[in-house]
Write a structure and sequence with these properties.
Distance between the termini: 29 Å
Number of strands: 5
Strand content: 35-45%
Strand order of the largest sheet: 1-2-3-4-5
Structural class: alpha+beta
CATH superfamily: Gcn5-related N-acetyltransferase (GNAT)
CATH class: Alpha Beta
Largest sheet: 5 strands, antiparallel
Shape: globular
Number of domains: 1
Radius of gyration: 14 Å
Length: 102
């Protein structure tokens, strides 16, 4: 049986997160547009005022994917929304917008 776990990322996971972002860029043939750095991710995900969150998917002890999401507010809907960016180890990335929050 596969042991799948989804856990919040921690500051020490930043190198893994950046690797997954780069993998997504390769899959989408957009590697040349990636300017993210470990320092930048550390600041924006785990700094004094985090602006996004990451969840990591594990099979046993191996990271196989991630979801990066940030909160937004829709003036038209008068409600919070959540925008997410996901990636799995198969490099199938997808964008999703949820109108009911994350």
């Amino acid at each position: 049986m596969t042991n799948l776990r989804i856990l919040p990322a921690r500051p020490e996971d930043v190198p893994i997160i950046l690797d997954l972002i780069r993998g997504l860029g390769e899959y989408e043939r957009l590697s040349h547009e990636i300017v993210a750095t470990e320092d930048g991710l550390r600041k924006w995900l785990f700094g004094e005022r985090p602006v996004a969150e990451v969840a990591l998917a594990y099979v046993d002890t191996v990271v196989v994917g991630f979801a990066l999401f940030f909160h937004n507010f829709s003036t038209f809907w008068d409600a919070p929304a959540c925008i997410s960016r996901t990636c799995s180890s198969s490099r199938n990335g997808a964008d999703a917008v949820s109108d009911n929050g994350c």
